[in-house]
Amino acid sequence: LMETMIITLMHIAFHSEKVELEAVSMICVISAIDPCQRELVKMVLDNLARQLGYSCRSKYLEELMGPLLFSWVACGVSLTALVQIRDLFVSDVEPSCFMLYCCQWLLPALILHDDTSNLQLIAQ
Description:
Elements: H1 2-15, H2 20-33, H3 38-51, H4 57-74, H5 79-84, H6 95-112, H7 116-123
Helix pairs in contact: 1-2, 1-3, 2-3, 2-4, 3-4, 4-6, 6-7
């Protein structure tokens, strides 16, 4: 069932620019909450990135990173889970470097949502 949802979300993202971000966000969240789906998610996002003309998944996700992370915070998904799937976005990077990379997008979202616990997590 989860595999079908991931594939369906990929097709939705490909065929509708209006909901592309939401579909990709959901795919990433699935990867965060269900470790068994992480390899499939990587393959799906690799495929989607290629279909949309990007050289690789990381270049594609880099384009969506700001709104994707804003959505991540708005939905209340754990930042720890985000760090656990960091290789989805960038390869071979330490957790602290990944958080530093994400700060420019995370901080405004966390401040707007008054998320002091995650702000403290980033401060560490």
